[in-house]
Amino acid sequence: MKYNKQVKTGVVVIIAIALFIYGFNFLKGKDIFSTSLNVYAVYDHIDGLTANNTVQVNGFKVGTVREIKIDPKTGKLVVHFIITDKNVKVTDSAHAEIISGGLLGNKEILLLLSDKGKAINDGDTLYGFNEVSLKDQVNEQMLPLKVKVESLVGSIDSMVQIFSGILNENTMKDIEASFTNMKLAMESFKNVSQNLDTTIASSDRTIVAIIQDFKQLSGMMAANKDTLAMAIANFKNISDSLAASNLKTTINEAGRVMTNAADFLAKLNAEGGARTLLGQDSVVLTDLRRTNARMEFLIEDISRYPGRYIKLFGKKKPNKKEEAERQRKLDSINRIPK
Predict the structure, then answer these.
(1) Which of 31, 238, 240, 323 is 20 to 30 A from 125 via CA?
(2) H-helix or E-strand spanning residue 54
(3) In whole angstroms, what is the distance from residue 309 CA to residue 240 CA?
(4) What is the DSSP letter of 113?
(5) How many CB atoms lie within 10 A of CB 295?
(6) 187-207 per-position pLDDT tens digit
(7) pTM score, whole prediction
(8) 3-state secondary structure (DSSP) of residue 106
């Protein structure tokens, strides 16, 4: 009985120690009963990664970080993590990236798997790198802006110096005077605009009346288009008749005679011209007599028989006696010596 109690006590102690060891390793993320793959990765910095952090693939936990050491030769950080999921096939082309997991920003290792290469063995090292942090992203975006701002500040400084040299006391006075003149000009323009608006407003009735008069005139012309067309045709007949009559020939001859008369008078006014011209046969005087007779005949003939010259007055013609008398007068005119 004494030995049975000691055996039982020993078994209980051993079980307690085993449970303590298992629980301690479990709390550290170790499973002493599972077969895990030990993997290493080297980083310049780990951004707060600690032991027992998660190793995941596409958000699924496949392992745990064991420990982190500093390589005394290179000064870089060596991260030891284990892969406990047997279904994960890791090749030597895979990468281990440190990322931020969750809203609290806890660091994790993301395995970027690849089908290329051969499967790794226990204790192999993968290529490790860090996720671009928010700080790095901000710096990347802000750096070009910072350069532009510095350049702009330099340009503004140069501009301020230039303006300081230009805008001296005299220049400021000139600018102030220019703005004053501009203000006066704008006020004058405002007054002119108001006067123009008043003038246009007062002239509205007159413009409307003129437009109405034009409308009435156009309506009247449209209503009397036949009468206007007949009047235009009559004017055309008048002009054709005048062109076909002897009036044109008579007027041309009268112009020629007046020219000769002017030459005659000029010679007559000249010294000794009177004696010379009076002693000769004056062609000018003869032409004047003949032209005067023809003009008298033409005026009388037009007044008695206007239809002979202008179609508008009808086609009234002289009788035989009147025609004989008219021809006699015309022959006597033609017999005037040339």
Answers:
(1) 31
(2) strand 54-57
(3) 9
(4) -
(5) 15
(6) 887 777 777 677 666 666 666
(7) 0.37
(8) strand
What is the spatial distance between Cα 293 and Cα 298, in angstroms, rounded to a whole number? 9
Angle at CA 330, nearest 5°, toward 324 and 333?
145
Phi-psi region of 253 (alpha: psi -120 to 50; beta: other; left: phi over 0): alpha
The answer to whether 71 touches 88, Cβ cutoff 8 Å, is no
How far apart, in whole angstroms, are the C-alpha atoms of residue 263 and residue 287?
A: 13
Give the separation between CA 156 and CA 163, rounded to whole angstroms: 10
Report d(CA 288, CA 254) in Å as an integer: 8
Round to whole Å and give the CA distance between 11 and 5.
10
Which DSSP string do the residues of 284-304 spell out, in sequence order?
HHHHHHHHHHHHHHHHHHHHH
Asked if 42 and 76 touch (Cβ cutoff 8 Å), the reply is: yes
Q: Write the pLDDT tens digit of every residue in 274-333.
A: 555 544 445 556 666 677 677 777 777 777 776 665 554 455 566 778 788 877 877 777
Pairing of strands 106-112, 77-83: unpaired
Q: Facing residues of 60 across strands? A: 57
The rounded distance, in Å, linking the Cα atoms of 33 and 213 is 116
CA angle 67, 73, 75 (to 5 degrees): 60
Tokens found for residue 334: 């033609």
